[in-house]
Amino acid sequence: MKPLEGKNVLVTGGTGSLGRVLVRRLLAGEMGQPKQVLVFSRDETKQHYMRLQYAHRPVATEEIIYKGAQGRLAFHVGDVREYASVVAAVRRADVVFNAAAMKQVPTCEYFPGEAVETNVLGPANIVRAIRENDTPVETVVGISTDKACKPVNVMGMTKALQERIFLGANLDCPETRFVCVRYGNVISSRGSVVPLFLDQIKQGGPVTITVKEMTRFLLTLDQAVDTIFAALRNALPGETYVPKVPSARMLDIATILIGSSDVNITYTGIRPGEKIHEILVSEEECHRTLERDGYFVIEPILQEIRHADVARPALAEEYSSAKALLPMDRLRKLIDPYLEVADPEEPT
């Protein structure tokens, strides 16, 4: 039986860029038909428009209409920062996907306390809600980022702590499986380079790049959800799933997007907390990384929940965006679908 058949599913940050795609695919039944998908976020306006989106969808094309499937899709206004709010959302959940986050690197640098509240205390509230209450939660999937690997910025530091909080929770909540996924930049999310560059080009430029050498991992929202589903299906408690994805120079992306337009490129220097290259698996994690189902799987750092010694690690060195660069023709093919449509909403 598919893992979500008949389950109550909670998606924190469900109105964000990733959350919306995750919810759509959950309701489409790829992992089984959930009994209910509960969208949890603090933005009532985004919830309102998301509800209308499903309410207006023709029944002939989908069986997930808000009015036609009583309770199949539900909404809860709340904040992962508030323990009571989290308890109210978690109490009936069988599976929790934690997509709530502060994700903008410069914002987190200027407001580190706010980043800690959402990215660290939020996950801690989820664990506490499961540990201290009679909840049926079977699995929690934490959504992390390449910036959590050898972090140099507040966003990455808080996400690294989220990983450790969830993975360590397997000791405190042995009836619940806690796993994580870690991936790079989602091409079409608000604040990512493609929508940013397209907007700058539309305004006549210039397109701003920090430094010529800067590289980033790239994946689509659907690839991100694929990684989440792979972890849900097969991850053992404490494991972190990492997709095998390509990377690109920011300069190459800008060049493709500008094309023949009369738009200049300017270099602004590295912003607070930025790296030139990102890393998905560090050299410390290499020796406990294996391959499974086309993904890198990092065994937990805690010996108590490690499932096996990795005799033949899948990686001999860190997995860096500097070493997985796409040639220009393949990069153009990857970003072509996003040339006209940028994500209109900011992720939660």
Strand content: 15-25%
Shape: globular
Mind telling me the C-alpha Rg?
Answer: 20 Å
Which CATH C-level class is it?
Answer: Alpha Beta
* CATH domain topology: Rossmann fold
C-alpha end-to-end distance:
32 Å
- Mean of residue pLDDT values: 90
Helix-and-strand structural type: alpha/beta
> What is the share of helical residues?
25-40%
* CATH architecture annotation name: 3-Layer(aba) Sandwich
Low-confidence stretches: 58-70, 341-348
- Largest sheet: spatial strand order: 3-2-1-4-5-6-10-15-14
The tally of structural domains comes to 1
Main sheet overview: 9 strands, mixed
CATH superfamily placement: NAD(P)-binding Rossmann-like Domain
The topology string of helices and strands comes to EHEHEHEHHEHEEHEEHEEHEEHEEEH
The number of helical runs is 11
